[in-house]
Structure formats: structure tokens, C-alpha cells
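Appendix B, example 12.
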Amino acid sequence: MSEIKLFGKWPMNVEVSDMGLRPYINLKPVVIPKSGGRLASKQFHKSKMSIIERLMTKQMVPGHRSKKHVLTSGMVVGKWQTNYRFLNQAFDKIEKVTKKNPVEVLVKAIENASTREEIAAYQVGGIIVRRAVITSPQRRVDLALRNITQAAYRKSFGKKTTIADALADEIIAAYNYDLQKSEAIKERDMTEKQAEGAR
């Protein structure tokens, strides 16, 4: 029997080097990463969803940041086929530039962009106290995916750069841990510095 490849092109047998993230990055071989919401009914079952599908799901609402939409997401919301096409094009570009399996590049980019520490604010008496807290592995993956998709969307919103090119560039920059080019890495670095100051 032939090997199952993502989009019929790339093998999914990639090793996750970060031991903490290994149970939360699902790399089960799949041709079309679409579960149809089967895992949405149970809490934390998103970890059983393919990491590629989770990235595509984040792409559907890339303008969302905090409690408001900084940029509109009206052009992409709910269009699964559109996101499928964008991701396929982005992976083609990643393979052309890096000469490596794009799934491997994405996994390494997620590992590099995932925050290990962040700030938690809580009230003690009449004052707000900010404390550094360790980020859970599930949240680390979520934040990394969100930061990568939002950075790509900001780079392409209202510009000549296509979303596929912007996404590919952001994933490659995060893979290379490039602080100058990757907004996701900058975000992680800033969060960890703030947490260090709040210890």
C-alpha cells in the first residue's frame, strides 16, 4: 500500500523535537486535512485534529486579535476551499525555497514561535498584580498558530503580496528563528521579556 501524503505530495512522518509539544501536534497521515467539526464537541479534543487543519482553521479568522477585529476577516471567513488553496500554494513555495518537507518546516516554526512564559494579571485587594506564569503546551501551540496566521494576514492585507506568499515567508522566517522578518518570533520574544520582568 502506498504512503499517505498530505495533499498527495508531502509525507507526514515528521519528528517533533520539543517533548512538551509532542502530544499536542497531531501528525497522523492524512490526504485532505478536514474533520468536518467531529472533534469540536469535546473539550481539548482539538489536539486530535491534524496540525495542518488547525492552521487552516486559524486562517479563517486571521484578523481577530484580543476582543476585537483589528483587521477585517470578511474575505476569508468560512471559505475552507480558499484556505486549502492558499496553504497548498504556500507549501509549494516553502518546498521550493527551503528544499525541505513543508510539514517539517511548519512544525519547527511552531516550536520556535511557541511562548514558554507569559503574564497573568489578577487583583489583590485594590491593586492589579502581574505575575509570570508558565504557558500550557496546548496554549503554546494555539498562540504559535495564531501569531503565524495573523502576521501573514497583516503582511498581505491591502498589499500586492498574496496571502500564500506572506504565509510561506512567515513560516520560513519562524523556522529560521529570524527576529527581523518573523512577527510571530517578535511576539514570542516580547511576551517572554515581559514575563521575565514580572517575576
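Helices lie at 51-59, 80-98, 102-113, 137-156, 163-175, 183-197. The mean pLDDT is 85.
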